[in-house]
Amino acid sequence: MKTEFKTIYTETQQFRQLWIWILVLVTGISSVGVFTYGFYEQIILGQTFGNKPMSDNALIISFVLATIFFILLLFLFFHAKLTTMIADSGISYKFFPFHLSFHKITWDEIESYEVTTYRPIREYGGWGIRLGKNKKAYNVSGSVGLSVQLKSGKKVLFGTQKEQELKEFLM
């Protein structure tokens, strides 16, 4: 296992896949849209909204909460960023906004590592920070990652969009 590097490998990834943005926008706009229509009907026009309308206060609160949730979801997906660095001291990673500082795995903690192809949904349940029994994955997109087997028996996977560059760096 190589543990001395002349340079530092760094990769930063963000959620920029069109399908994710379409899903987030359709879900958010439709949710906020229902409450906006209900707000307009019941609060502005004074007509009850639905067969069993909620109170005006509950509708206003629901409208505000749905709007805030949608804005926070947009903020989360736009600003979420996975940064992975490999250096002489080990592997450092940060998945902002969930990690505010870098977490580190030292070479002394690592038994083995390899750049591998994996099935994100089947093996980890999707993308993002994924937790399983004795395994974690930090991935943003794709199906290639650096799989790290720790001496503790745990496994950590870091997704990559730079498969060839990472393989060459680790040689």
Short description:
37% of the residues lie in helices and 32% in strands. The chain is α+β, with helices and mostly antiparallel strands and 171 residues long.
Protein model, in words:
There is one protein chain. The protein has helices at 18-44, 56-79, 120-124, 163-170; strands at 9-14, 81-87, 90-96, 103-106, 110-117, 128-132, 135-139, 144-150, 155-159. With 171 residues, the protein is an alpha+beta fold. Helix 1 runs antiparallel to helix 2. The longest helix has 27 residues, at 18-44.
Largest sheet: 5 strands, mixed
Radius of gyration: 22 Å
Taking the alpha carbons of the first and last residues, their distance comes to 9 Å
- Order of strands across the main sheet: 5-8-9-7-6
Give the low-confidence spans.
none
**Based on helices, strands and strand pairing, what is the structural class?**
alpha+beta
Number of domains: 2
Give the overall shape, derived from the CA principal axes: elongated
Estimate the strand proportion: 25-35%
What is the element layout, followed by pairings?
Layout: E1 9-14, H1 18-44, H2 56-79, E2 81-87, E3 90-96, E4 103-106, E5 110-117, H3 120-124, E6 128-132, E7 135-139, E8 144-150, E9 155-159, H4 163-170
Parallel strand pairs: 7-9
Antiparallel strand pairs: 1-2, 2-3, 3-4, 5-8, 6-7, 8-9
Helix pairs in contact: 1-2
Highlighted features:
171 residues, alpha+beta, five-stranded mixed beta sheet, four-stranded antiparallel beta sheet, 9 strands, 32% strand
